[in-house]
Specification:
Largest sheet: 12 strands, mixed
Order of helices and strands: HEEEEEEEEEEEEHEEEEEEEH
CATH architecture of the largest domain: Sandwich
CATH class of the largest domain: Mainly Beta
Structural class: alpha+beta
Number of domains: 2
Distance between the termini: 57 Å
Number of helices: 3
Shape: elongated
Length: about 300
Amino acid sequence: MYINNKNHLSVFLAVSALCFGIPALASAATLLYFEAPTSSVSVGSAFHVGVLIDSDQPVNAYSVQMDLSGNALRLDGANNANSIITVWQDIPGSSAKGGIKLNGGSESSFVGTRGELITLNFTAVATGTVQFSFSNPAVYLANGKGTKITPDTKTLRYTVSESALAGVTGSGVAANQVATSDSIAPEVRFLSFISNPFGSDEKLLGFSVADAGSGIREVEARYRSTFFWSDWAPIKNPTPLGNDVWEVDFRATDNAGNTAEQIVYDWNAFWIFGMKIGGVLILICLAAFFARKMRKNTV
């Protein structure tokens, strides 16, 4: 497979900028903020918090870390079904330790208000006051240069109180309720090997997946550079691979547990591998031939 869309290529360049960094800085009226249906919940409640962006300039790549104080909340996962991000490098998981990170880019730029980056699903597990904040976020302009800007941010405070009834459901929709209503597998929009502009001994595996029901939970891959498969392992986007890798088995899983699997081949690497095997077989045959001839001559 190959990339036949300039937008797809620009996405990979944007995400590569997140991997390797672009030093340019610029100012813009860009704001990152949290949104929740209410400012208080009770212990046992399941609820969600949206992470949104306003920008008066087109942007198409994001590197954001979110922090929350205290131990009153448990992060149950994230829903990116409605996200403006279409190519993910880091999808928030089910642990808030060390901050909640997201990195990714979009195939089309965003300008306007209330652009959704992610929806975070939480359960209140203890009483207390929690503050959501951002730590050194970066957004990149869709100007062909990937110019980095530092957005303004707003914090959000949440109060968790005692629950009179066990298992009381708070505002919003619990993560498991969304998941159980989703029976459709994720969509693999494209999957391709691309050249690595930063090194000749590696290539990159790029991909774009989406899930309109419950959002993507995990992407994994295994590969072959010989006859044998590697183990399944979570991957980032894009993922560096050795130039000798000729087959990759790719798997995306949504928050409901539905999976989509697809295989991509690098035929150049396959033929090089085949020629190496062919050369070894020829050497074995020649060795066997001369060994047999020598035995005949000694008889």
